[in-house]
Design brief:
This protein is mainly beta. It folds into two domains: about 5-45 and about 195-200 and about 205-210, no CATH class; about 50-185, Jelly Rolls (Sandwich). Helices cover about 0% and strands about 50% of the residues. It has no helices and 22 strands. The chain has strands at about 5, 10-15, 15, 20-25, 25-30, 40, 45, 50-55, 60-70, 75-80, 90-95, 100-105, 110-115, 120-130, 135, 140-145, 160, 170, 170-180, 185-195, 200-205, 210. Strands 1, 6, 7, 9, 14, 15, 16, 19, 20, 21 and 22 form an eleven-stranded mixed β-sheet that branches. Strands 8, 10, 11, 12, 13, 17 and 18 form a seven-stranded mixed β-sheet that branches. A two-stranded antiparallel ribbon has the order 2-3. A hairpin with a 2-residue loop joins strand 15 and strand 16.
Length: about 220
């Protein structure tokens, strides 16, 4: 298990370097050479107050599709999103009723609370600002009656696990995270470790850039 804020799984046995590691039938670590200077991981688990800045500012044509998993259900904890201090809200988090709340809106209109209870299973989440829809594992969960204005662009970027400005970080596992703009893939994140520094984060396959896990706020 790759555990940020806790213990890190061993990547060698004695003096023998291993190429992959499994827990049961699940691959949890794999040494690959497709990204020079980085070790590709199957997942990153957050158990503390950290986040990953995607450096993408959502608008009316933004769509996120991510493969993630809560490891514990904490009220008001954020799976991903933009700060509520900005002019555009685009986020997915746990509300005080332990159900999902989704936001893809601008202005002062209210958020969209769902009746779907948050659980600790692995899911594919899809939040589409253009279609104003929220899906879990391909099933429509909520139509969003409000939306983001056609010319509105967020003053804050989307972050994974919490907002860049703070908020309650979710205890969750990240497997993959994709962002589309007008149906064009603009971010395609996979978990990695930088070999030189040992830093953990995600590699963006679209822009060929490493995004390190952050602890500070902006």
């Amino acid at each position: 298990m790759i555990n940020i804020g806790g213990n890190i799984a061993e990547m060698s046995v004695g003096n023998i370097s291993i190429g992959s590691a499994y827990v049961g039938n699940q691959l949890v670590w794999e040494k690959t050479s497709d990204i020079p200077g980085y070790t590709r991981l199957s997942r990153l688990e957050n158990t503390s107050d950290v986040y990953i800045d995607t450096e993408y500012y959502p608008n009316a044509k933004t769509k996120v599709i991510c493969d993630m998993q809560f490891t514990s259900v904490i009220k008001q904890s954020i799976l991903f999103g933009t700060s509520n201090a900005g002019n555009v809200w685009f986020s997915l988090y746990v509300n005080n009723y332990n159900t999902y709340t989704v936001q893809a809106r601008s202005g002062s209109t209210a958020e969209s609370r769902t009746s779907t209870t948050v659980n600790t299973a692995r899911h594919t989440f899809e939040l589409d600002a253009t279609l104003k829809k929220f899906y879990i594992d391909g099933t429509l969960i909520r139509n969003l009656t409000r939306g983001i204005g056609a010319s509105a662009v967020s003053t804050y970027p989307i972050a994974i696990w919490r907002y860049t400005t703070g908020g309650a970080a979710s205890h969750s596992i990240l497997y993959s995270f994709k962002i589309y703009d007008d149906d064009i893939l603009v971010r395609d994140f996979i978990p990695v470790q930088e070999e030189l520094t040992g830093d953990y984060g995600v590699w963006d396959k679209v822009n060929e850039k490493f995004h390190k896990i952050q602890t500070d706020t902006v």
